Automatic annotation (TrEMBL):
Organism encoding this protein: Shewanella algicola
Protein name in UniProt: UDP-3-O-acylglucosamine N-acyltransferase
Pathway entry: Bacterial outer membrane biogenesis; LPS lipid A biosynthesis
Residue ranges constituting the UDP-3-O-[3-hydroxymyristoyl] glucosamine N-acyltransferase non-repeat region domain according to the UniProt record: 23-89
Tagged with keyword Lipid metabolism: yes
Residues at the catalytic site: H239 (proton acceptor)
GO molecular function, one term: UDP-3-O-[(3R)-3-hydroxyacyl]-glucosamine N-acyltransferase activity
Assigned protein family: Belongs to the transferase hexapeptide repeat family. LpxD subfamily.
NCBIfam families: lipid_A_lpxD (TIGR01853), PRK00892.1 (NF002060)
Length: 341
């Protein structure tokens, strides 16, 4: 078990220590669940009442909240961000692989960097380049001529097709497929003719991709995921999509082909974004939204309806179908009113 003193954490976080600086911390927890040896945090004032009862050995607090707590604390600018950094320091998640397992199949032409670990039954094909300290979990397949940058990690059963470039310090969760064919077909009198997808996928640095997500290769040019993007589980990103720097995409979202999403966007879960669109930098799309047109300006965008009783939903559905008729009636009333004036 890793231990670190409050003083050492304060130095790491550039924080002010309040109380006993020699207290040892072994892990993190919520205010409600924390016990001795754990560090907690208060990021929302509505949980301030839990400060008095918490059993945490120390708490991360803003300067404003510190006056309400008499125990040991680290005073920081942003308690939640500091909590994330401490959680990283004390992380006990096992490595994706240790050493190179004898059952791994590695093509002689592959270039394997120093400190690389490859798990059982993984396949590394011809022309692959794995940078220093890359971890490839059991059952992964890395296709021909793909490149994975240093310190990137793949959990078990990730499939990386040919000509995929993944940057440094990336994390890919189990079951994800990167570089599968985009949905490209021409229709010849009712028969679908496949268009070979000859582009690749280019993923920047510090990108994290959740479990069972699919990122299609480009049809001619590349699909691009830029630096710092975070992608949740079970997401579909189609061919030639471009996702800008530090954008976050929540689970079950689908993005159709050739759409470009700007920098610093937040895409809520279960969002559907149509193809050949562009979304400006800094856009926040609420969960469950259907995006069918270009978004040119920064802001919050939403659609869909909230859950309601089935009877009410049925009535409103009927009324929705009557909107066009209602609009025309209002228009006629406006005309007649103007005529009377």
């Amino acid at each position: 078990m890793q231990k670190v003193t409050l003083k050492e954490l304060g130095q790491q976080l550039n924080a002010t220590v309040k109380g006993d600086a020699t207290v040892e911390i072994t892990s993190v927890a919520t205010l409600e669940d924390a016990v001795q040896g754990q560090l907690s945090f208060l990021a929302n004032s509505k949980y301030r009442a839990q400060l008095e009862a918490t059993q945490a050995s120390a708490v991360l607090l803003s300067e404003k909240e510190a006056e309400f707590y008499l125990g040991n604390a680290l005073i920081v600018a942003d308690p939640y961000v500091s909590f994330a950094r401490v959680a990283q320091l004390l992380d006990i998640t096992p490595k994706q692989a240790l050493g190179i397992h004898p059952s791994a199949s590695i093509d002689p032409s592959a270039i394997i960097g120093e400190g690389v670990a490859i798990g059982a039954n993984a396949v590394i094909e011809a022309g692959v380049i794995l940078g220093e300290n890359v971890q490839v979990g059991p059952g992964c397949v890395i296709g021909q001529d793909s490149i994975i940058g240093s310190d990137s990690r793949l959990w078990a059963n990730v499939t990386v097709y040919h000509d995929v470039h993944i940057g440094q310090h990336c994390l890919v969760q189990s079951g994800t497929v990167i570089g599968s064919d985009g949905f490209g077909y021409a229709n010849e009198r009712g028969t679908w003719v496949k268009i070979p997808q000859t582009g690749g996928v280019r993923i920047g640095n510090r990108v994290e991709i959740g479990a069972c997500t699919s990122i299609d290769r480009g049809a001619l040019s590349h699909t691009e995921i830029h630096d710092g993007v975070i992608i949740d589980n079970q997401i579909q990103i189609a061919h030639n999509v471009i996702v800008g720097q530090n954008t976050a995409i929540a689970g079950s979202t689908t993005i159709a082909g050739s759409t470009e999403i700007g920098k610093y966007c937040i895409i809520g879960g279960n969002t559907a974004i149509a193809g050949h669109l562009s979304i400006a930098d800094g856009v926040h799309v609420s969960g469950g939204t259907n995006v069918t047109s270009i978004i040119r300006d920064k802001g919050v965008y939403s659609s869909a309806t909230v859950a309601m009783e089935n009877k009410l939903w049925r009535r409103n559905t009927v009324r929705f179908r009557q909107l066009d008729e209602l609009f025309n009636r209002v228009k006629q009333l406006e005309k007649s009113t103007k005529g009377e004036e």
